[in-house]
Amino acid sequence: MKELIAKRLKLNEDSKAIIEKAKTEKRELTAEEQVTFDRMHAEIQAIKGTLDRMALQEAEERAMAESRGRKTETTVEVVPNREVDANLAFRAWACGEHATEEMVEAAKRIGFRYGRRELETRALSSVTATQGQASIPDELMRAYVDVQKWYGRVRNLATIIPTTTGAPLPIPTTDDTSNTGEIVGDGAAVTTSADPTFGAVTLGAFKYSSKAVIVPVELLQDSGINLPVYLGGALGTRIGRKQNADFTAGAGTTLPFGVQVQASLGKTAVATNAITFDEIIDLFHSVDIAYRERPDTAFMLHDTVAAYVRKLKAATSGQYLWEMSTQAGQPDRLFGKPVVINNDCDSAFTTAKRLLLFGAFGAYNIRDAGAPTFIRADELRVLNHQVVFLAFQRSDGNLADVTSVRYLRLA
Hints:
The protein is an alpha+beta fold. The protein has a domain at about 100-175 and about 200-300 and about 340-410: Major capsid protein gp5 fold (2-Layer Sandwich). The chain has 13 helices and 15 strands. The protein has helices spanning about 1-25, 30-65, 80-95, 100-110, 120-125, 135-150, 155, 215-220, 225-250, 260, 275-285, 290, 305-310, and strands at about 120, 160-165, 170-175, 195-205, 205-210, 215, 265-270, 295-300, 320-325, 335, 335-340, 355-360, 365-375, 385-400, 405-410. The strands form three sheets. The protein has a seven-stranded mixed beta sheet. Strands 1, 2, 5, 6, 13 and 14 form a six-stranded mixed beta sheet that branches. The longest helix has about 35 residues, at about 30-65. The chain is globular and about 75 Å long.
């Protein structure tokens, strides 16, 4: 990990040197320099992704070790019979009619109804204590949630509201920013009132599907494959990608309202195809300081825009705006605030595009109606000796306070 951090820092210094050389010679980057800079930036982002994944994996290994009551360094693992049975029982469900006798017997021992086509995560969490805990479904859901974190850039910062049903859910909003208190004399009555403006945004429950994930029966029966993690990752990736696109740029009505769509104007750039250091400063200060100081405050932008912003620096001091992270698992920063790369944001440098978002993304509410549902379909690919799996999740999203997040728009 240290070697990767050092390599990332060197690439950052080398890319800075390209910019400095062009500035010293008072010219634009040559085509060759531009290609080199973009390659370096892509490699920097790739290394950052690797470091983040390594940190996530280490955290996962520690969590798994704690759940088994053993240290991570232990090389010999003693797995209780109930965990072995839970693993086999889940494979019995996944294999369906192709389940082996061993899988079926394990499912019976722990009381797991493997013959059902549809499973909900609340039904997967455990069985009765006398039958032993079924830990495999926890791995399925953990993998499903973890992979959504990689694609759910908005979800990672938003406020998540889980509900048991999909009935319309009103989220109250209040605007009291124009009202202040007053001084009154001793014994004097308060003669004026200042009522805040109340409103509400209503969250529904759009039904998201992973589409079909096709798995060969041989893979389902292979005990060397961590099947719950495999399926959870495959299904979660599909839904995570779709939801992030909608939570970013959804236009409402038939989609959730995306945060980029609902955010308020913070700054309009002078140019139709470029942004400046000073304009990003104006965007920063267009957000009320009460929102700026919240822990969920961040910048959000497309990777193409990030490559552009990394080249900007103050005209007087020559200091780069972009603050490179040197710690695994920690984001780069602008003005001390985290930068979130979201490739569902606008990326084209053309008229009226909203290239940067900044604000308190916790004001964006995501409603998850019920638990995700996982379905096995045996017949669809029976001639290919394959089994089809699908996941469904009902969710909606909207920005409760449109002033909490603002955008920088091209002219």
